[in-house]
């Protein structure tokens, strides 16, 4: 047992720090926590996060090369939303920003994919209620995302706290001996 619970934050190299901050703030709703001009860095928090920061951005300058698609390294980051309605709204924002790259159902999750201005791939995902995973609990499928059917069934259903509470989900942070619900 390692004691690791989950990924805490991600840090990305970007070519234009201000452009990247604007994208994550204006399109995905992140809030700026702090900036560190000496490192040309900014730290952002997802709007419903209890974390100090969920994303660090380090600007390298306009001439910074992008890694070639298909090279080894990070493929994408996945940001979880609370409701399928949230995912649908973010899908529209990502499309309006010209950052949309696709979408799919993975059975236990519904996902929208995009890329930031530097080509860093991301996934926005909503998790189906754990009790409804059924056969998908042990599968990794890629299927068509049927927005009409899925919204009719799942609109308003909140699931983000199944992996542990976000803002407002709990008055106190868990102690080291108290596991988060769903983190086993």
Could you explain how this protein is built, in words?
The protein is α/β, with parallel strands linked by helices. Helices cover 17% and strands 25% of the residues. It folds into 2 domains: 10-62, 2,3-Dihydroxybiphenyl 1,2-Dioxygenase, domain 1 (Roll), CATH 3.10.180; 75-162, Signal recognition particle alu RNA binding heterodimer, srp9/1, CATH 3.30.720. The strands form 2 sheets. Strands 1-4-3-2 form a 4-stranded mixed sheet, covered by helices on one side. The protein has a 4-stranded mixed sheet with strand order 5-8-7-6, covered by helices on one side. The model is unreliable at 170-184 (pLDDT under 50).
Largest sheet, in brief, is: 4 strands, mixed
Silhouette: globular
CATH top level assignment of the largest domain: Alpha Beta
**Which stretches are low in confidence, meaning pLDDT under 50 for 5 or more residues running?**
170-184
Q: How far is the first residue's CA from the last residue's CA?
A: 11 Å
> What Rg, in angstroms, do the CA atoms define?
17 Å
Task: Please report the number of helical segments.
Answer: 3
Q: Order of strands in the sheet with the most strands?
A: 1-4-3-2
Strand content: 25-35%
Rounded mean pLDDT is 88
CATH architecture term of the largest domain: 2-Layer Sandwich
The number of E-state strands comes to: 8
Under CATH, the topology of the largest domain can be stated as: Signal recognition particle alu RNA binding heterodimer, srp9/1
Question: How many structural domains does the protein architecture include?
Answer: 2
- Please state the structural category: alpha/beta
The share of residues in helices is: 10-25%
Order of helices and strands: EHEEEEHEEEH
